[in-house]
């Protein structure tokens, strides 16, 4: 009977440790959203115009997606959750922080997305078309 009680106490202790560990890791996942801006320079996007912000936001979205895919892939292997956290989480949190700051600057500047069918502005100055002045009535050409 004592062995049974000891075994059941050991099982309850293991379960309690497992639940506490899960809660701690779950808390870390929630913290990353609020701590993310702490890992980025808040003044980085102050002087960006809307065109620069649009390109930066797209690049950050692509980088966030890449890191998320790498983290998901790492979690499929043995010990993947630990590898994912150690290898990619810091970069992921930093990129999310930069994205939040870029989005804040986007809203502050009241930027709008460029329509996909918009023609890009010419990169080199175009020569103006010079036409002869119109002839005045009553004047003769020499």
Which keywords apply here?
142 residues; mainly alpha; 3 helices; 62% helix; 0% strand; elongated
What would a concise description of this structure say?
Helix content is 62%, strand content 0%.
The H-and-E topology, N to C, reads as HHH
* Share of helical residues: 55-70%
Sum up the overall morphology in one term.
elongated
Overall strand count: 0
Give the helix tally: 3
Low-confidence stretches: 12-32
Task: Give an account of the 3D structure.
By secondary structure, the chain is an all-alpha fold. It contains three helices and no strands. It has helices spanning 2-35, 50-74, 80-108. Helix 2 (50-74) runs antiparallel to helix 3. The radius of gyration is 30 Å and the shape is elongated. The protein starts with a helix and ends in a 34-residue tail after the last helix. Mean pLDDT is 74; it is low at 12-32.
What's the layout of helices and strands?
Layout: H1 2-35, H2 50-74, H3 80-108
């Amino acid at each position: 009977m004592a062995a049974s009680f000891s075994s059941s106490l050991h099982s309850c202790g293991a379960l309690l440790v497992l639940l506490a560990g899960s809660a701690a890791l779950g808390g870390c996942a929630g913290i990353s959203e609020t701590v993310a801006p702490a890992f980025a320079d808040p003044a980085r996007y102050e002087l960006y115009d809307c065109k620069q912000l649009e390109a930066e936001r797209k690049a950050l979205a692509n980088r966030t997606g890449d890191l998320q895919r790498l983290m998901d892939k790492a979690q499929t292997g043995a010990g993947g959750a630990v590898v994912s956290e150690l290898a990619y989480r810091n970069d992921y949190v930093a990129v999310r922080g930069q994205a939040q700051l870029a989005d804040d600057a986007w809203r502050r500047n009241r930027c709008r997305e460029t329509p996909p069918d918009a023609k890009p502005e010419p990169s080199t100055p175009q020569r103006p078309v010079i036409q002869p002045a119109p002839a005045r009535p009553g004047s003769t050409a020499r």
